């Protein structure tokens, strides 16, 4: 089946930039997503990118997609303590019958 | 009010007991999903339903069953709970026609402990 991989942990200082990376195997992916999970809560969509785009920027968030290498990244500028959470990379494709495949999640810890 | 609700939020049970986790949604979405989350293993799909008459197994359906009682309700059952089913369970919905990106909307989760 299709696979999505990401590193499990990232620790940064408040005010620094955070970069969370993800790789995926499905070459027919149509949408790629970043979901955020805060403690005690469900996942919530943070941002997404369509597969024909290379970059998407939304305030402090920048998503980069390298379709050739099947690599997705999320950059958070000026990281704040409130950004501490688990970040999940996910993808959807027609091959996947419209379901989403999720990575294992990256726990971001922001130190003051 | 939350669009996707799950009951109960927490449950402790014993090995061998039958457990039902319930999910309700007010988003009017046809597609509903059940996932379990384990530390270091991310989200794994248990079952999914694309409409009321459609039920499909996910990657880890053994030991689980589901019922789609209505568009708004999707229940997950553990017929005979075992300790390795201790996990955080999430229900989610989506509607590929409602938005451009097939985003999934998650409930708050049910923490299940099987002793």
Secondary structure layout:
The complex is a heterodimer of chains A (112) and B (115).
Chain A (H helix, E strand, L loop, with lengths): L3 E3 L2 E5 L4 E7 L4 E9 L5 E8 L4 E4 L2 E6 L4 E6 L8 E9 L6 E3 L3 E6 L1
Chain B lengths: L3 E4 L2 E4 L5 E7 L5 E8 L3 E10 L2 E4 L7 E6 L2 E6 L8 E8 L9 E3 L3 E5 L1
Parallel strand pairs in B: 2-11
Antiparallel strand pairs in B: 1-3, 3-8, 4-5, 4-9, 5-6, 7-8, 9-10, 9-11
What does this protein look like?
The complex is a heterodimer of chains A (112) and B (115). Chain A has strands spanning 4-6, 9-13, 18-24, 29-37, 43-50, 55-58, 61-66, 71-76, 85-93, 100-102, 106-111. With 112 residues, chain A is mostly beta strands. In chain A, strand 7 and strand 8 form a beta hairpin. The radius of gyration of chain A is 13 Å and the shape is globular. Chain B is mainly beta and 115 residues long. In chain B, 0% of the residues lie in helices and 57% in strands. Chain B contains no helices and eleven strands. In chain B, the strands form two sheets. In chain B, strands 2, 4, 5, 6, 9, 10 and 11 form a seven-stranded mixed sheet that branches. In chain B, strand 4 and strand 5 (42-51) form a beta hairpin. The termini of chain B are far apart.
């Amino acid at each position: 089946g299709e696979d999505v991989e990401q590193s499990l942990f990232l620790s940064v200082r408040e005010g620094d930039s955070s970069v969370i990376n993800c790789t995926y195997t499905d070459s027919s992916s149509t949408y790629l997503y970043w979901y955020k999970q805060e403690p005690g809560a469900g996942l919530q969509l943070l941002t997404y990118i369509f597969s024909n785009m290379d970059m998407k920027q939304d305030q402090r968030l920048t998503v980069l997609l390298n379709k050739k290498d099947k690599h997705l990244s999320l950059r958070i500028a000026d990281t704040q303590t409130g950004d501490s959470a688990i970040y999940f990379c996910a993808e959807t494709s027609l091959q996947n019958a419209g379901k989403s495949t999720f990575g294992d999640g990256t726990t971001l810890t922001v130190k003051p | 009010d939350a669009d996707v609700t799950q009951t109960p939020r927490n449950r402790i049970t014993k090995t061998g007991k039958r457990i039902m986790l319930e999910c309700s949604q007010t988003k009017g979405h046809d597609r509903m999903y059940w996932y379990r989350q384990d530390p270091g293993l991310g989200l794994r799909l248990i079952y999914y339903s694309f409409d009321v008459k459609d039920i499909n197994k996910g990657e880890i359906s053994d030991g689980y069953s589901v019922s789609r009682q209505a568009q708004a309700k999707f229940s997950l059952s553990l017929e005979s709970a075992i300790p390795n089913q201790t996990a955080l369970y999430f229900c989610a919905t989506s509607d590929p026609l409602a938005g451009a990106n097939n985003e999934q909307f998650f409930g708050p989760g049910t923490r299940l402990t099987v002793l």
